Model the fold of this input.
Amino acid sequence: MSDFWVFGYGSLIWNPGFDWLEAHRAKIFGLHRSLCIYSWVHRGTPKTPGLVLGLDKGGSCLGMAFKVSSQNRQTVVSYLRERELVTNVYKEAWCRIKLQNGGVATALTYVVDRTSSQYCGQLSLRRQIEIVSSSKGKSGKNREYILNTVNHLRSIEIHDNNLENIAAHLRPD
Done:
């Protein structure tokens, strides 16, 4: 087996949770970053869901690609499945990405399952702010997730208008 790539577009950017050999900005086509998932575990509960990111149909998405050693393949894939497939709102996918250095690779990523009851599609900005401001799950407050993601996207010179608008309305604790 050979080394492989993992594409991150949200919390994987700032909290991959696995060892990697290289990290590069990368772009995936045909999918875009969207705050389209009700979080029932990490940033909310079934009673008071939070909102987390998913890759949804259409457009493109800038994120980070992490090269993982073939020796760590099983460990990393198992870890990602446990983390990302906890409620089966994502589908595991191998997608082509374009690395910032011009190279092309196939990367493991997690795409939203639009048939999941956790898929909320495009909510109004006001509704997103209401949910994010008040929800909390086992991984912490939803506002922290948004603010961390925005800060880390900025640090790698990626601008996401929707997340920036939400962050502008959140008060830090």
